């Protein structure tokens, strides 16, 4: 299942994550993670123009390691896009790749505001510069709006132990019926699952749910990261799962989740969790 994993690179370009105490990763650590990922069979990276200098980090790694070239998913920013052709060519140069596996609108709003770019992107698909056009979304309503757009073949959406099948199952089924590829992110909810102390408003409001999943992990004698990642990887509707790591060791630990299959009783318990205030599961709304 290693090819079902996408390695996120936001930590390589920015100080990111509610449970991140180390800040932005050094170039040396980023290269160590990328080397380990390739060695372990992970072949796809997720990045974005908005992720600080992550494009440059990836591009420099590719220049230093011409035999270790990753497939790239990157995202165009939220604002109006003046020259999409120039932007795509710039990305190819920065990332030091010949094509993009997925070029994604970084938000549903970006997709709505820049639909005129899609005809150009479809031309890029015809000549092999882009494999897929995608949209990164947050809500089920946004997903439903994409079902009828045949140009959008990849949808990146949240999915995790709390933002779970009880919330996402219906729209995921609808996406697969339309033949779309599902990528999920926020498997660890930006590290919220691993917080030891509920010292911020989000963790306090979700304390009962967070304690429940910690109890599930203890009962199953499995670490929390393996539980969280296995829940996503074992969902047959999901094509690829995006994760972020802070070290090569953490990446190796996460891959151990590939060897764990959740039993139906545990799946039922997880799916029975239904957070009422969905805004609490949306990191873009955290303050």
TrEMBL record:
Pfam families annotated for this entry? Aldo_ket_red
- Gene3D superfamilies for the chain: NADP-dependent oxidoreductase domain (3.20.20.100)
Per UniProt, residues of the NADP-dependent oxidoreductase domain are 4-273
Molecular function terms in GO for this entry?
Answer: oxidoreductase activity
Per its UniProt entry, which superkingdom is the organism in? Answer: Bacteria
Q: Per its record, how is this protein called by name?
A: Aldo/keto reductase
Q: Which organism is it from?
A: Flavobacterium sp. CFS9
